[in-house]
Write a structure and sequence with these properties.
The chain has eight helices and 21 strands. By secondary structure, the chain is an alpha+beta fold. It has three domains: 217 residues, Rossmann fold (3-Layer(aba) Sandwich), CATH 3.40.50; 83 residues, Elongation Factor Tu (Ef-tu), domain 3, CATH 2.40.30.10; 108 residues, Translation factors (Elongation Factor Tu (Ef-tu), domain 3), CATH 2.40.30. The strands form three sheets. Strands 7, 8, 9, 10, 11, 12, 13 and 14 form an eight-stranded antiparallel beta sheet that branches.
Length: 429
């Protein structure tokens, strides 16, 4: 089967991961609640509970934001603190939606929610237009390599569905897109509270000729976003049944990080350099004709090689970099500042090593969206560019080439806490 056929098949069945972000009180949780309500994803008892809670709070309407604002502190303050995940299904696609917090002090939560997303929905209050958090979250979405950006200009009902006001904001957003370097974007006017242009097109805004939000999400092309060219398979587990019936079985289990895998493909094993061919690509249901990125499979090879967790199977014609030094963009997630000389654990795909921070080259100025080379320390929620020297080799691609192979986390080995999420800009052997 051709890669184009793989793409068509994935479009119909693949889970689409979304993240909503934006400033506090822009209506992210309400938008998710509206999507779930209008697509009939809410159980009767859930709806009754929301109605009762809305009445008790004195909201004066059924507050759909309560579907996602699950923490007691969030309900009391009316804000989102943690990342709330909700799944929903339409006749065309399956979705998992992460509601990320808007407050600047929860940037690390937003990065967590957005790290696996294919589509970012950035909400903009029609009354306020583009503000600092709009710029920050748009920059983060672009930096995290999220392929598709949706600017949802919300609360259009509070500006009387004004076409003039929408176009003013649209101009600001186009300038922002040019600044942050987003790949694919669309601007949609809507009212999450009333449901205009969320699931159904609004009769209140006849001047808008584009799709409603759900219509766009169901048709946006995401299957080709992953790297289908460079075969990458980090080994998660070695399967050896050790039974008389399967005494010679040896399979390597994991999730495909790149390329399309088939029986007969040549394979290079890193870091050892051994070579073989793919004997079979399998799941618990049996062998597959092919498998692409994101699919969890077991790969068997024609030769019995010494391969373990953390090794990588790849295409001999286009191997990744066997890196001992990385330049990366990181979001710092610890209360303790990061300074040059810090020693941390690093985990990338299924491989771990130790790392020393050789240099902090710059820290992002979120107001100007420019790197500030005068700062050489990262504080909580800061985003900066650093250089890491590694104790052992990591098998990497740049984040721009492959998100799975180009991302990592840093770990405080004393506490085992994750202290940073990183994206590889370049690597040296």
């Amino acid at each position: 089967m051709s890669i184009s056929a793989l793409t068509d098949d994935a479009l119909a069945s693949e889970l689409v991961r979304l993240v909503t972000c934006g400033s506090v009180d822009d209506g992210k949780s309400t938008l998710i609640g509206r999507l779930l309500y209008d697509t009939k994803q809410i159980f009767v008892d859930q709806m009754e509970h929301i109605e009762e809670t809305s009445e008790r709070r004195g909201d004066g309407y059924v507050n759909l934001a309560l579907l996602t604002d699950g923490l007691r502190a969030e309900r009391e303050q009316g804000i989102t603190i943690d990342v709330a995940y909700r799944g929903f299904v339409t006749p065309k696609r399956r979705f998992q939606l992460a509601d990320a917090p808007g407050h600047v002090q929860y940037t690390r939560n937003m990065v967590t929610g957005a790290s696996t997303a294919a589509v970012a929905i950035v909400l903009v209050d029609a009354r306020k237009g583009v503000i600092e958090q709009t710029r920050r979250h748009s920059y983060l979405a672009a930096t995290l390599g999220i392929p598709h950006l949706v600017f949802a200009v919300n609360k259009m009902d509070l500006v009387e569905f004004s076409e003039v006001r929408f176009h003013e904001i649209e101009v600001e957003l186009r300038e922002l897109v040019a600044l942050v370097g987003a790949q694919d974007e669309i601007v949609i006017p809507l009212s999450a509270l009333q449901g205009d242009n969320v699931v159904e097109r609004s009769t209140e805004m006849p001047w808008y000729q584009g799709p409603a939000l759900l219509e766009h999400l169901e048709t946006v092309e995401i299957a080709a976003d992953r790297n289908l060219d460079d075969r990458r398979f980090p080994v998660q587990w070695v399967i050896r049944p050790m039974s008389d019936e399967h005494h010679d079985y040896r399979g390597y289990a994991g999730q495909i990080a790149g390329g399309v895998w088939r029986a007969g493909d040549d394979v290079l094993v890193l870091p050892s350099g051994a070579q073989s061919r793919v004997a079979a690509v399998e799941t618990a249901d049996g062998p597959l004709d092919f498998a692409g990125p994101g699919r969890s499979v077991t790969i068997r090879l024609e030769h019995d090689l010494d391969i373990g967790r953390g090794d990588l199977l790849c295409d001999p014609a286009c191997p990744p970099i066997v890196a001992r030094q990385l330049e990366a963009t990181v979001c710092w997630m610890s209360e303790q500042p990061l300074r040059p000389g810090a020693r941390l654990g690093i985990k990338q795909t299924t491989r771990t090593a130790r790392a020393v921070v050789d240099e902090i080259r710059s820290v992002l100025d979120v107001h100007a969206l420019e790197d500030d080379p005068s700062r050489h320390e990262l504080e909580l929620n800061d985003i900066g560019t650093i250089v890491l020297r590694l104790s052992g080799p990591l098998l990497v691609d740049s984040y721009a080439q492959n998100r799975a192979m180009g991302s990592f986390i840093l770990i405080d080995e004393a506490t085992n806490n994750t202290v940073a999420a990183g994206m590889i800009r370049s690597a040296e052997a």
